[in-house]
Amino acid sequence: MKIGTYTLPNRLFVAPMAGVTDRPFRVLCRQLGAGHAVSEMVTSQRHLWASLKTSRRADHTGEPGPIAVQIAGVDPVEMAEAAQYNIDRGAQIIDINMGCPAKKVCNTWAGSALMQNEGLAIDIVEAVVAACAPRNVPVTLKMRTGWCAAQRNAPVLARAAESAGIAMLTVHGRTREQGYGGQAEYDTIADIKSVLRIPVVANGDIDTPEKARDVLKATGADALMIGRAAQGRPWIFREIAHFLATGEHLPPPATREVRGWLLAHLHDHYGLYGEGVGVRTARKHIGWAVRALPGGEAFRAAMNTLESADAQVRAVATFFDTLAEAHPLLPAANDARARLSA
Ligand SMILES: Cc1cc2nc3c(=O)[nH]c(=O)nc-3n(C[C@H](O)[C@H](O)[C@H](O)COP(=O)(O)O)c2cc1C
Fold it and tell me: Which of 164, 237, 242, 320 is 20 to 30 A off residue 8, Cα-Cα?
């Protein structure tokens, strides 16, 4: 699987998720089998680039390549400048966001709202491609199936974006109107795949190895992108990779192994955010990791009251030590579907 000149190790990608797929989490996902990782979106609005939030999002220290940065905006010139700014800071692939349903994005930025305005959407793609081409940086695009059920225009937009020079397209199988509700539909992704020459990535509700196999079959996609199912369970990438390669399931990871991954993730997380913010923002990652485990909910409630990195790390270590005594292998999640919440 290639994006431009970059050959990726596999066709399982971690989805960009604002507030989740920061650099520490992307590094962890890659370590556990993700073949590609796209940053959380970075605004095209220049006056925000110096903000702490945006500069953290543009931090790629120690991240294995190719480094892909997602940009969001509504103005072609600003988007081209944002691409150049991020290339100067290490981006090797630029991804354009036309998939995010968040109000903040649709009103003041862009996201899936751009799909309503095909002319502007393609102007943006052309401007970003023109800015990236001289630097040899491929441009990828992420979109939904359309704005609403009556306007499922992804196939038309996808063809125009391919002609405008994008190197890969990811499609989340929902309209903007659907938010994260209902079931992702894969027929539109299959339609798009059948008319494009560039690689197409299918996204939406992939949460088990079987589902990954089925979505590949239903869409004919070249790769899969996984978002919410990787929250608290980043080893899902290697589980899916193993199943696709062999038709067999990997045994669950050793509980002590999961302990090690989570502690290393926390360490990296505090390093990026500092202790104060780091402890607070780490709670969601810890919560996702423990919520389907025996005693996980009670632990989560207690852990959320801890204010220091030291106390948080000790609590996590003790929780997994105790769990490992009864369960050397990580016990199965209660209900994988319940884990997919936006
Ligand atoms: C918390 C959260 C944040 C997200 N942020 C972004 C984003 O910054 N850019 C983007 O293109 N999509 C974003 N998405 C959408 C995901 O990339 C993905 O398309 C969606 O979650 C469907 O995939 P899944 O069913 O595997 O989770 C976000 C999703 C979630 C749940």
Answer: 164
Note the pLDDT tens digit of each residue in 161-176. 999 999 999 999 998 8
The pLDDT of residue 109 is 46
226 lines ligand 1 (CB under 6 A): yes
Ligand 1 atom closest to the CA of 225, numbered from 1 = 26
Task: Tell whether ligand 1 has an atom less than 6 A from the beta carbon of residue 205.
Answer: yes
Segments of 57-138 assigned E as strands: 68-72, 93-98
Ligand 1 atom nearest residue 15's Cα: 17
Helix (H) or strand (E) holding 59: none
Compute how many other C-beta atoms are within 10 angstroms of the C-beta atom of residue 31.
Answer: 16
Residue type, 112: S
Q: Tell me, in angstroms, the distance from the centre of ligand 1 to residue 40's CA.
A: 9
Q: Is 204 in the pocket of ligand 1 (CB under 6 A)?
A: yes
Q: Does domain 2-246 have CATH number 3.20.20.70?
A: yes
100 catalytic, yes or no?
Answer: yes
Which amino acid does the sequence have at 67? I
143 C-alpha to ligand 1 centroid (Å)? 11
Q: Do residues 83 and 94 lie in contact, with contact meaning Cβ atoms separated by under 8 Å?
A: yes
42-98 residue pLDDT tens: 888 888 877 888 778 878 888 998 999 999 998 999 999 999 999 999 999 999 998
Q: Are β-strands 200-203 and 12-14 bridged in parallel, bridged antiparallel, or unpaired?
A: unpaired
